[in-house]
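Researcher: Please generate the 3D structure of the following complex. Treat every line as part of one assembly.
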Amino acid sequence: MIADEATISRLMAAAQDGDKAAYNVLLSEAGMWLERYFRRRVPPSQLDDLVQDVLLAIHNKRDTYDRQRPFLPWMAAIARYRWVDHLRKVYKHESKEIEDDDAIEDSGEEVTLARVSLERLFGHLNENQATAIELVKIEGLSIREASQRTGQSESLVKVNIHRGLKKLASMVEKAD
Amino acid sequence: MNTSRENMIAGLAQELEPVRPITTRSGLALLGFATLVAFGVSVFVYDFWFGMLEGQASAFFWVTNGLVLLLGIASASALVAGGSPRIGQRENSPGWSAAMVAILPIAAIIALFTGEANHLHEGLNDPVALMCSRASIAAAVLVGFASVMWLRRSAPVAIERSAWLVGIASGALGTFAYGITCPLDTVSHLGLWHVAPIGISAVIGRLVVPPMIRW
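Model: Done. Output below.
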């Protein structure tokens, strides 16, 4: 993120007061941050839709931001929530190449970003659940292809996706 | 940044209106008001038990209603706080408060089993048990309605947790609102039939609330 936490929190407070210019800057910054945040966990073809979905959620729920708290964990919680929802809905058959995520490496706020990252969230799943979600929901393989790739039965792939998504949804607010 | 996103951001900025940030205080006020309404309706239907003010209530009456109120406040606070998204540790005061309230039915069952044989029979065949449970759940529905209203207005991101909290908070506050009109103050009656509605509400909340608050 180009703007630091204090600056972007001030922009959000100004936006809540109706400052359109501040809001424009805030959403642009948020859009860039979200793009990097999601890059490794969403196929490139769906990335912009998801970013716009989160920006719209930020807009609709902007009155739930508490000015006494930092902005980034608030936005990241919404981003995680929309991401899990997106994984539930999206099913693509074509495989997509996933690019490396540089959201953490090129930021000056590593500690905060590490705490709110999607990688951290994904790390709480067991290996079979993470693999099933990764192959079917992110890379876009069919259940049958994922079954062949992993050696899990098709039913087991479905169960692992279902349980994995349920677990992700229950951990949206988790920091470690 | 692509043109589509730029246009979207420009559109959102153009239509921006000032908003008043929602506060924990306003959420708690809403739930508190709903509890007062539930209390008012309970008093209207069942009459206020003045005996409690005249020293007729047993200690267990105060302990039970006090613990139930504490659980209601703890879970309502957690529910309201959950309306504002954030990543980080949440306090588990509802869990500890629920554990304290769970002592009550255990105490009631121990008292029933260790008392005289007819005590057990009385406890399980309490003639007003169903009425108390029904009235508590009816009062809980009022508080639950306000809780769901609050969550729909805010932005819960832990849907299951919020649904449990709706059930527990509304169950506890509803039971409290009705409970202080109930003149039966025995261990078996309060420990069983004024705690069961909280568990029932919690399960109903978990099953019914998620589709209402998902956004």
